[in-house]
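Handoff note, outgoing to incoming analyst
You'll be picking up this chain. Sequence as last confirmed:
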Amino acid sequence: MQLPQTIDNRYRIVELIGEGGMAQVYRGDDLRLGREVAIKILRPQYANERTFVERFVQEARAMAGFSHPNIVNVFDVGRTGASPYIVMEYVDGIDLRRKLQQEGRLSIGEALEIARQVAEGVGAAHRKGIVHRDIKPGNILIASDGRVKVADFGIARAMADAQHLTEPGVVWGTTAYLSPEQIRGETATPASDVYAIGVLLYEMLTGQTPFQGEDRVAVALKHLNEPPPPLHELNPRVPPGLERLVLRMLSKDPAQRPADANEVARLLRAYQNMGNEATAVTPRIQTPTTPPRQAAAARSAPPPKAAPTSTPDYRTAPVRAEPQRRAEPQPGTPGVDWVGVLLGILAMLAVLGLIPLYALVYRELTSSNLLGWLNDTATVLSIFHTGWL
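Most recent structure output, in case you need it:
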């Protein structure tokens, strides 16, 4: 497709930076505002489809009024000749597809951070009532400074409204990342985007998508009918808690998944914070008071060696906040000897001349009522003795 060097006397074409079956993407300059931009221009076969173009332009304009740090911002929509184009934020970096091709599976920490930023951006769109419908690695851009941005909102919806552009019976979208309900031809919802983010996270953690097959149909059938292979079988370093979250996101039933990407972002932030707290916070454990008879020995004994400090890697092992443990009694701190107490009471009775009542005491001791009373009393006294009251 031959393009002019400048579009609408404003956007100068610099170089082709990407292309797919639907469009070509160029790096360009906004001569009016003096900034780098990315310009996506539809291929002629799509430019001639009125329904698609109308939806494409409508979705692009909707995104042009929406800005978020984790979404590729849309600046302008127009036409060059017969072909519609979108002017977007230029992201200097690579897409997630290329990163996975170069590196295979990612570290736990990096996968979490990318997924969280994706969920933050998609969640912001969900709050505006916008569903992406086609989240995949090629639509996830990673800037050189580490920022993650989601691109191509609304493209899948435009294609869905122009179904005659696809083969009969073929669902628009990338099958490896499509939710079961989308494969069945149902309307995509925020939970559908959650499923796709779950597939992304699964792939980043294991190096492969959860469902493999010889063709699109085989993969689609697995999405519908088979559970994903456990992550720990492909990467033993995946923590159990994180694995449970990913598998929940991949539930066949949308109602069993997190409701939208905002909930996913919250859960991922919480998981990341667990790792940060584990490296910065030492649980407070109450130390029992040393009995007087042990104080001298404690002062003369050499201080215990401090345990070596290390920074736990929450990327390679499950991070859980250690529960605060109740202080154990120090050696030499006796508990209450209830048998001795009872014998002492009997001895006192004997001294007072009340020993002839032994038969009555014996009968009462063997009755469930008195034993229950003694047990309850022992519990209360034990609580008082340990300082709980």
